[in-house]
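no rush on this but wanted to send it before i forget. what follows is a protein written twice so to speak, once as letters and once as structure tokens for the fold. mainly i need to know what kind of three dimensional shape the backbone takes. thanks a lot i owe you, the record is right below.
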Amino acid sequence: LSRHADFLGDTGTNNLTATGLNQATALQLAHSVNAFLTVTAGNNGAKLEPIATCIWSCIMVRNDATGVDLNVYPAIGEFINGLAANLPQAVPPGTGKVFFKNTSAKWVST
């Protein structure tokens, strides 16, 4: 994935390991294309950049782990789709989601 992201002017990384169980301890995403290889019951979090400082219009997250959902959190005070502020969007194993900036505090995901 990262090779294709670079070609398109985005940045990407593969083989990420999820961290934490909540918004505060989740792995802070630093690329527009992110592929997770390790997601466990004790470490299943990733966190989107704050919309105001995110340079990309969308962020792609792929969960290549088996058996455990990857929980993608918004930045503090932001929300995803119709979820309450600060709650995660689950990315099931073997799938991916794209998170698009919608407003100054809202991400919309596929």
About this structure: The mean pLDDT is 92. Helices lie at 2-7. DSSP finds one helix and ten strands in the chain.
